[in-house]
Amino acid sequence: MADDRIKEKLEILADAAKYDVSCSSSGSDRKNKKGGLGNTGAGICHTYTEDGRCVSLLKILLTNHCIFDCAYCVSRRSNDIKRAAFTVQEVVDLTINFYRRNYIEGLFLSSGIFKNADYTMERLVLIAKKLRQEHNFNGYIHLKTIPGASDDLLNEAGLYADRLSVNLEIPTETGLKLLAPEKNRKDMDVPMDYLKNQIIRTKEEKKIFRSTPKFAPAGQSTQMIIGASGESDMHIMKTADHYYTEYNLKRVYYSGYIPISNDKRLPGLGSDVPVIRENRLYQSDWLLRFYGFKRDEIVNERHPNLDLDIDPKLGWALRNLDQFPVDINRAPYESIVRVPGIGVTSAKKIVAARRFGALRMEHLQKIGISANKVRYFISCQGFVPLMSDRPAEMIKHYILAASHTKYKKVFNQQLTLF
Amino acid sequence: MQQRTTLSYDGSWVGLLTAIFEVYEYKFDAASIQQMAQADQGDLFGARHEVHTDHAKAERVKKGVINRVGKKDFQELYAAYLSELQGVEDLILRLVRNYLAPDGVGLSQNYGHEDVLRIKQINKSVSRERHRFKAFVRFRKLSDELFFAKIDPDFNILPLIIPHFRDRYADQSWVIYDIKRDYGAYYNQSEVVEIHLSDLPSEREIMERGEDKEALYDELWRRYFRSTNITERKNTKLHLQHVPKRYWKYLNEKFDL
Questions:
Q1: Is A100 on the interface with B (CB under 8 A)?
Q2: Which pTM was predicted?
């Protein structure tokens, strides 16, 4: 009987938590202490759902009861759904037992707001505390930070959790006002600011006292729903940029809006999830974080939205053909990594390998670089780029004709709508 | 033309390193290394040489290679050996000879070199599977507090994942058993020992020996797996790319409820 209830609760509260996209478990370096249980840092995806997303953490809500009524959220107060709540001990037992069987890397715990922010946050913190102190659990813990919770609770959360996150929900303030009138951006900024300062302070203290306890070692992250409130990609990336720089966020996640109601303010039921747009935003995020691009090279007033049919790096290259061809055997790493079709790993291999002799096209192919894209943008031993005097549109056409995008099927479905 | 010598070794890593040492010791210019079990496929007209595994000789090869190209590249040779691919011994031999040659320093970074590229590719495959099995091992808790898992990897990756499981599950006894190669690792909360089970428990026996709550957690995990899926985003191709079908047989979340 009790077993049946826990099965039902798990289904309800996992289902309600699945819209939180972060599943990262690699940013921390917690070691297994005193022969206890678990460690972090391996970044393991233990399985993948049928939608292809990684399952690394036990991702659940403590409860889906909520006092708020945000239009985009499945747990909103006015939605007529089954409600459930775990006890603190149930979440602890599930986490430990899943972990010991090597199902998960740890716990991602979020919650609807019941009663008030402090009441909810207190329970989240209590679970993390029990895991760490009573079970000597050193696996990964990601806690949702509830806006409005007191500093004391936030501080305690940081001592037990590896990562904390506040959801920005909607990329623009006007969108947030429209869809979640009871929330405002400032309430979200306050805990982020507090945590940022605590993280910095802990790092400083650690330089003096090595025994300083860890404080959210995997930092803070956030997520935004995209495609729910009509914002442009430039708006989204501006917001992301702002939070990366002002709040030292580790990651900004994007969650393509999945239609869950017939609310007039939102895309209706049955409209497509903007999967490709979401992917283009992540690609842009990578270009900014690992490839040395500036935001306004990717989106600006003249190109406020990312191309859906080509990736943002190719888009940039086609708008800046004057920067090509890049000489693979002479150009600095920074230019090579900007060539469409060459990633960070390949660029590093090129720079390492060319010391042994001039590289030719066949060397690049053996390294794992596909000629389809790069042949328009590079020169190397025995090779001059194709069509370097042709307009960008034509190059784009040739590249698309020769490539098999993994989104082709999805695309065709979308195109038939028009 | 020089006569070709086929060296046969016992199949162990130390044995392979001994064989490489003896290629130098006996100045075999044209040499090929094979496991004893396969040695009868050797060159009909070539000479044969049987290698007796010798730790001191193996150690000298190890030191020599590490001195030249570093620990990481030595580890790459070991991972390639674990791939058990046909002819991998000769690839390792060629690479060691190249690394130990006068211009061998730093050679392991030459991605334009055919053998270097090949060993990187093999390492990528082995490393991918090593990482997968950190993820895909599924323990069942037996009534005697032992956590038991069977694996069936393409490559012999068990030695590569032991440190990970030893660190992570320091406070529980566990067995990870490779059914294809019929050997396993048993951790008794202080050290890991190699074991061979004369008769391996079947899935049913394991379930029957399971602890009271085993069936519950097994089912909870399968329900969780189903509930966390977003049907509107279904992407079977991506799913299969990450969880290839050949791994399903020990992934309980892929069993029907």
A1: yes
A2: 0.89
Contacts of B53 (CB under 8 A, 6+ apart): B9, B10, B12, B14, B15, B18
- ipTM metric: 0.90
**Among A7, A35, A39, whose Cβ lies nearest the Cβ of B219?**
A7
Q: Which CA distances in Å does A173 have to A145, A146, A170, A183, B107?
A: 19, 18, 7, 10, 56
The answer to whether the Cβ–Cβ distance between B111 and A352 falls below 8 Å is: yes
Phi, psi of A136 (to 5 degrees): 45, 45
Q: How far apart are CA A41 and CA A38, in angstroms?
A: 10
Structure tokens at A324: 């090509």
Cβ pair A101:B111 closer than 8 A: no
Answer whether A133's CB lies under 8 Å from A196's CB: no
| Region of A124 on the Ramachandran plot (φ > 0 left; ψ -120 to 50 alpha; else beta) | alpha
CA distance A411 to chain B (A): 14
Q: How far is B230 from chain A (nearest CA, A)?
A: 6
Alpha-carbon distance of B77 to B33, in angstroms, equals 15
Q: For an interface test with A, which of B161, B187, B230, B256 has the most A Cβ atoms less than 10 Å from its Cβ?
A: B230
- Mean pLDDT in order along chain A per 10 residues (418 residues): 90 92 84 89 90 93 95 93 96 97 96 94 97 96 95 96 94 92 92 94 91 92 92 95 94 92 88 92 96 95 94 95 93 96 95 91 89 90 79 89 65 42
